[in-house]
Specification:
- Helices cover 0% and strands 54% of the residues.
- With 587 residues, the chain is an all-beta fold.
- Strands 31, 34, 36, 37, 38, 39, 40 and 44 form an 8-stranded antiparallel β-sheet that branches. A 7-stranded antiparallel β-sheet has the order 32-33-1-35-41-42-43, with no helix packed on it. Strands 2, 27, 28, 29 and 30 form a 5-stranded antiparallel β-sheet that branches.
- The chain is built from no helices and 44 strands.
- It starts with a strand and ends in a 9-residue tail after the last strand.
Length: 587
């Protein structure tokens, strides 16, 4: 038996500098011996800044800080802040970043800010943003070209015991010099909480969950001068919406995302486009309606599509937001691309698909890719802040979470020997299982590539008890091939070998003269592995500058350069068990 988990196939001019950590694994951003969480990140045109909360226990409490991260995942600098409080939100203001957070440095909770330079250093000292002493949590910050707008949930009307409708959304402008501008604004008309804010000239849009029946999503535009426009309802369904709301913009319209509890403990994610005139554009967008709970959406826009990410609890069987014995993957970060027109682009996919809990996913776009920040081992003493990059030029991906092969262009099932499997999958709820009992190839095929000069593919697989036919001295099979079409020509492949009980993998590519270049075999152990291959076509018939790279389990194993391979480009790819020989078997 061979289990193959199709993670994604991608291409179209991917940068060679793109790290191998894209989708399915992450790199540490803040991982001390304490608990760390993140709620915000931003991009300055070159690097990313990730805000974090370091929960030191016992006292002095939860310290605040930020990490500067390069587009390759390198950690460049840390900006500690001499305050304690909640995980900060982050926005870039043209020269410096602004961190804003609910502060708990002794006394009642209020709102503080800190400017951070593009070098990752604190600029000046922390400063007071709100004089309120009843701040629940800072939930958003955005920049309008002149000033920032910081929004938070305020509990100045909360009584004991708390009552419905006793929270409000407040905001205040902050200059690029770190000074407050004007008075505090009560943005929610009657009651509200968990707001988010985005700016597209000429106004900000602030969206929040109303705090009376906890069912509706409200919003209003706020001018940079602080004028409050008419409050309106983004969604008025009868389902509970008692969770954070997020908003992002494409520069003209806005996308508001929220969760609805459609049945008991079953939360689905929805979205709605809003025009600059406060008109709802189109209908409600069903972003994720999978079983279980999908919560806490984050949004970013890449120039063509939005990426929506969320904390996905479909594998958290009892819904307790903790990884109990037997729950395996438990909590992951889910993702979905949504076009600027409000249509889903592709299917839901797993941004992370690792055991344990990954939750809370601030998402930001910059430098041709998304940075998705998440808390690894969420709600455990070892919680740390990690990140993973998601490229924008994905041309295909599928985790067979639809329980079918419908997303693929073709499939060779051999009478059911290749099937969608739900028993201990390699990630998510399903994977692809192949039972080898003859020499017929078992594979899924993607025809999305179109004359790709630069192609990259990434997937998980488990060789399990697969035998390529060792008793008959057959030791190899291909598990991935990228082809040219018309004429059909193999351009790159990943070869699996089993000999003397040892498993190994090799990358292989074809030159223009039909000779082949190999990476050599690299030994692997039993069990699941994450495999990635990158192929680059030579720039001309005379240039020998083509390349092939092979990663295994996020480690770059080999780079082949100086390849003369200009004749062909990638048109389709197959994933599975290919070129089987007599004696091949598996159970």
């Amino acid at each position: 038996m061979m289990d193959v988990k199709a993670r994604h196939l991608l291409g179209i001019a991917l940068l060679a500098a793109l790290p191998a950590a894209a989708l399915g694994s992450g790199f540490p951003i803040e991982n001390t011996a304490h608990r760390e969480y993140s709620a915000g990140a931003a991009f300055d045109g070159t690097n990313f800044l990730v805000g974090f909360q370091d929960s030191v226990s016992p006292a002095p409490g939860s310290s605040i800080g930020a990490r500067l991260v390069s587009p390759t995942g390198a950690l460049l600098a840390t900006a500690p802040v001499a305050r304690t409080g909640d995980s900060p939100d982050v926005a870039f203001g043209g020269t410096n970043y602004l961190l804003a957070w609910g502060d708990h440095s002794g006394g009642p909770p209020t709102v503080y800010g800190q400017l951070v330079s593009t070098a990752g250093a604190a600029v000046g000292s922390p400063f007071l943003i709100s004089t309120s002493t009843t701040v629940g949590e800072v939930t958003g910050v955005a920049f309008d070209g002149t000033d920032y707008l910081v929004v938070w949930t305020d509990e100045r009307r909360v009584v004991d015991p708390p009552q419905p409708g006793d929270k409000d959304v407040y905001g205040r402008f902050v200059s690029t010099a770190g000074a407050t501008v004007g008075a505090e604004l009560k943005i929610s008309g009657s009651a509200g909480k968990d707001a988010s804010v985005a700016f597209a000239a000429p106004n900000y849009l602030v969206a929040w969950g109303e705090d009376v029946a906890d069912q509706e999503v409200h919003a209003r535009f706020v001018t940079p001068a602080g004028a409050l426009q008419t409050e309106f309802t983004v969604n008025g369904s009868a389902f509970p919406s008692d969770n954070p709301v997020r908003v992002a913009t494409d520069g003209t319209n806005f996308l508001v995302a929220w969760g609805d509890e459609v049945t008991a403990d079953n939360w689905d994610l929805f979205g709605q486009l809003v025009s600059p005139s406060a008109t709802l554009v189109g209908g409600v967008i069903s972003i994720c309606t999978a079983p279980g709970a999908q919560l806490a959406p984050y949004l970013a826009f890449d120039g063509a599509n939005y990426l929506v990410t969320w904390s996905d609890l479909r594998n958290d069987g009892n819904g307790n937001f903790a990884c109990d014995p037997g729950e395996g993957f438990c909590i992951d970060i889910g993702g979905q691309l949504v076009s600027a027109a409000g249509t889903l682009v592709g299917a839901n996919f797993a941004v992370t698909a690792d055991t344990g809990a990954q939750a809370q996913s601030p998402t930001v776009y910059g430098g041709g890719q998304y940075l998705v920040v998440f808390t690894n081992e969420f709600q455990t003493p070892s919680a740390d802040v990690f990140g993973t990059f998601v490229p924008v030029d994905l041309i295909f991906r599928d985790g067979v979470e639809s329980d079918t092969f419908s997303a693929w262009s073709a499939a060779s099932l051999d009478g059911g020997d290749l099937s969608v499997n739900s028993v201990t999958p390699l990630g998510g709820t399903f994977d692809i299982k192949g039972v080898v009992n003859d020499t017929n190839s078992l594979y899924v095929e993607d025809q999305s590539p179109l004359d790709e000069d630069h192609y990259r593919a990434r997937f998980r697989f488990d060789p399990a008890s697969f035998d390529p036919g060792t008793a008959q001295s057959h030791f190899r099979t291909r598990i991935f091939i990228a082809f040219e079409q018309g004429p059909t020509r193999r351009l790159a492949a990943i070869v699996l070998k089993k000999q003397g009980g040892q498993l190994s993998l090799m990358g292989r590519t074809r030159r223009d003269d039909n000779s082949q270049a190999d990476t050599g075999f690299f030994n692997i152990g039993a069990g699941p592995h994450l495999v990635e291959i990158e192929w680059k076509r030579a720039t001309s018939a005379l240039a020998a500058d083509g390349e092939l790279r092979l990663w295994i389990d996020d480690t770059l194993m080999s780079t082949l350069t100086a390849l003369q391979n200009n004749v062909s480009s990638v048109d389709f790819a197959r994933l599975g068990v290919l070129s089987l020989k007599s004696g091949a078997s598996g159970t």
